[in-house]
Specification:
The protein has about 270 residues and is an alpha/beta fold. It contains eleven helices and six strands. The chain has a six-stranded mixed β-sheet, sandwiched between helices. A hairpin with a 2-residue loop joins strand 5 and strand 6.
C-alpha cells in the first residue's frame, strides 16, 4: 500500500503544477467549442433491406441562412434590451458555446459618440463588458484626454461602446469572415437603436466589417467616412498602440479631429 506521505506529496505537486498553469494563463480549452472526451460514439444501426422499392424522397428543405436569420432577428428588436436578447438567442455562432459571457455594451445610452471595437478579450469575457483589459484602460485614458468617458453623465461627453463580436474568439484569434458576416446585421441594428451622432470604428476588424473595405486601418485611420447616414472615424485600436507606441501621435491627432467634429454638429 502506498504510504500516506506519498499520496500527500503527489497531491501537493499536482496542485502546484495546476496553480502554475493558471498563473501562466492556461485557463481554458484550446478548441473553438467544448468537447466531451468521455462521450461514447453513437451506435450505428445496421441497414435493413426494404421489402419494396422505396418511395421517391421528398426534396430537402433549404438549409437555414445564418446571415438572413441574423437580419430577421436584429430587425425585430425594438430597443437595445431586445437586441441583447436576440443576440443571446442567436443559435448559429459557435463562439457562444465557449464564451463565459455575452459582451453587449458599456457606457451611456444616448451618448453622441459610439465606439465599435473588434471582439472581447479575456478580461472582457470574464466581466461581460467591452474594453476593460489593458487596451480598454488605454482607451479610457485616450478619451479622458479630451474630457470624454464611458461614465460621463453628460451625453455630449459620454461614450457608448460595443464590439463587432459579442463573444470572445478562442485564443483571441481574429474573427472569421463567416462570424463577421453573421454579426454585422446585429451591429447595424445596434447603431440604429443607439443613434449616435458619430461612430468611431476602432481597429481593422471594425472598419473593414462595417465599411466593407479591404483597405488597411493604417491607411484609412483619420479619414472621415459616412456610415449609416452619419460621420464615421476609423482609428487605430488601443491594442495596436500598446504594441506600437510611436503610433500614439496619430491617435492623438484623430482624437482632436473628433473633438472638433463634435463642435460642428448640431
Amino acid at each position: 500500500m502506498t504510504p500516506w506521505s506519498d499520496w500527500e506529496t503527489n497531491f501537493e505537486t499536482a496542485r502546484a503544477a495546476l496553480a502554475w498553469q493558471v498563473e501562466m494563463g492556461v485557463d481554458e480549452a484550446i478548441c473553438d467549442t467544448p468537447q466531451n472526451r468521455y462521450a461514447l460514439p453513437d451506435k450505428v444501426a445496421k441497414p435493413t433491406k426494404p421489402a419494396t422499392a422505396p418511395a421517391a424522397a421528398a426534396p430537402a428543405s433549404e438549409a437555414t441562412d445564418p446571415v438572413a436569420e441574423a437580419r430577421s432577428m436584429a430587425a425585430a428588436a425594438q430597443d437595445l434590451a431586445e437586441l441583447r436578447e436576440a443576440l443571446a438567442a442567436y443559435p448559429h455562432c459557435e463562439l457562444r458555446l465557449g464564451a463565459r459571457n455575452l459582451v453587449f455594451c458599456d457606457g451611456q445610452e444616448g451618448a453622441r459618440v459610439m465606439i465599435v471595437g473588434e471582439a472581447p478579450g479575456r478580461e472582457e469575457d470574464l466581466q461581460g463588458k467591452p474594453f476593460v483589459g489593458e487596451a480598454g484602460q488605454l482607451l479610457d485614458r485616450m478619451f479622458g484626454a479630451i474630457a470624454m468617458g464611458r461614465a460621463h453623465p453628460d451625453p455630449a461627453r459620454a461614450l457608448y461602446i460595443t464590439n463587432i463580436l459579442p463573444w470572445r474568439p478562442p485564443q483571441n484569434r481574429d474573427p472569421s469572415a463567416e462570424e463577421r458576416a453573421m454579426m454585422r446585421p446585429f451591429v447595424l441594428r445596434h447603431v440604429e437603436l443607439a443613434n449616435p451622432d458619430i461612430v468611431v470604428l476602432m481597429g481593422r476588424i471594425s472598419a473593414s466589417t462595417l465599411l466593407e473595405t479591404s483597405e488597411g486601418i493604417t491607411r484609412i485611420r483619420g479619414q472621415w467616412r459616412e456610415f449609416m447616414g452619419r460621420p464615421a472615424l476609423p482609428m487605430l485600436h488601443p491594442a495596436y498602440l500598446l504594441r506600437t507606441p510611436a503610433a500614439k501621435r496619430e491617435a492623438w491627432a484623430d482624437l482632436l479631429d473628433l473633438q472638433a467634429k463634435l463642435r460642428t454638429l448640431p
